[in-house]
Design goal:
With 76 residues, the protein is of the alpha+beta class. It is built from three helices and three strands; from the N terminus they run E-E-H-E-H-H.
């Protein structure tokens, strides 16, 4: 999970097989349209063994607002 460095923080959840490169792309304004124009920092990650499981977990975290807010609060 990424958290924006802006005044009004937002979070972004996604999956990748190269975390460093993905974060770099987001901070350069490349990648997902939602991430453009913001600077991001990594606040939470999980290592998942298969792409299918990673997509499932991403979906769960995106839909679970309580979990996202808890992670965001722990990383102020």
């Amino acid at each position: 999970m990424l958290k924006s460095m802006s005044r009004k923080t937002v979070t972004y959840v996604g999956y990748t097989n190269n975390l460093k490169n993905r974060l770099l792309l987001h901070n350069r304004g490349k990648g997902a349209k939602f991430t453009r124009g913001r600077k991001w920092k990594l606040i939470y990650k999980e290592k998942i063994n298969s792409k299918k499981e990673a997509i499932s977990r991403e979906y769960y975290i995106k839909r679970n607002r309580t979990l996202r807010n808890k992670i965001k609060k722990e990383n102020k």
